[in-house]
Design a protein that fits this description.
The protein has helices at 23-47, 59-70, 80-96, 107-121, 124-155, 158-232, 237-266, 287-296, 314-334, 368-376, 379-389; strands spanning 300-306, 339-346, 350-357, 393-398, 404-411. The protein is an alpha+beta fold. It has two domains: 23-196, no CATH class; 298-418, Histidine kinase-like ATPase, C-terminal domain (Heat Shock Protein 90), CATH 3.30.565. The chain has a five-stranded mixed β-sheet, with helices on one face. Helix 4 (107-121) runs parallel beside helix 6. It is rod-shaped. The two termini are 37 Å apart.
Length: 418
Amino acid sequence: MPVSVSETTPYAPPPPLMQRLPRSARAAVTGCAVALLGLLLYAAITGGAEPGGGLDSEAASLAAASVVMAAPLAAARRRPSAALALLLAEAAAAAALGLRAEQVWPLFPVTGLLVAAVAATRTPRAGLAAAFATVAVQETVLQVDLFRDGGRGRVLAPGFIALTACLALLVLLAWLTGTYVRQRHAYGGALRAHAAAQAVTAERLRIARELHDMVAHSIGVIAIQAGAGSRVIDSEPERARGALTAIETTSRETLRGLRTMLDILRRTDPEPASGAEAEPFSGLADLDRLVATTAHAGVQVEVRHGGERRGLTEAVDRSAFRIIQESVTNVVRHADARHCRVTVEWRPHDLSVEIVDDGPDHPDSGSPRAAARTGTGYGIRGMRERVALLDGDFTADPRPEGGYRVAARFPLPPTEAP
């Protein structure tokens, strides 16, 4: 899925390049950079002077001036724009004072690196302005020096035209590098935000499926038992008492399941607290309890097993049980059926689950389950999502002879295949 970064989103600059280094190490690197630039400036100024210029007697003053000129580089890590502006001002001032371009050449590559830093850590407009200002100052210093030495003919000499183009290309390369770093950082941030949003959505859907599958079956049984009990409470007190017992049992099981889910959702520590072990979620081992609960609601469930049973992953075990539970709940709530058959078959490479009832549903009957199949309900939609997350196949359709059929196939990992 493509990810786009909106231009209206406030730009968040990437972290400094040396943020992983200790503070002392960062200070040492910055100091070395300033010292190196000062040394290069001193060597360039003294080496580019004409013989007999009397610079030997001013060596200490020139060394101090070189260090002062290199000092703005110390602020490059936190304020690259300010450091770039100061160094460009120094280059322009040096040219105005009569220094040759070859005497301030160390400022040219340093300002190019600062252009990359500004483009990487500031807004696109700031990076573009820094690149234009750097090109303007560098070209001005070079062209003034050339014109001072030989006039217009020296400026238009092929070799110096190539040097002019190289300076501009180096600044352009620095700006492109910084822009690439900034865009990569912005794109990575957008990907992380998109992944976080997807994770939140997936978790919400998972919780919604668990709550629906856990509560829908129990509420359906409770509703049917409450209706049956209210009708026979005067004529058949024993049956009414049995209905109330089934309601109590189902309610306690539902409450226990909800408490387990809430404990898991509220848990922040990777290890559960001592004495607070949560009960595992239901699986195929709980089919007998599901059959007994459904029998109290008036629907007889027949369970058939096929193939060689073997261990399943928690996801497959829980999803298979939830699909059976939701299908049986639909039979209890929406179908006028008295019998339901559940078939669980272990195959060499997959697990097959099929639920069939003998209700009067027909493709054109307009039953609630037919409406759920078209997407207006949550039960079949949740079952389809569960199977899709495990790369399985799912079908839910009325049978031509009447009744309804739900089938799901879960592929098993190689470690579970015989």
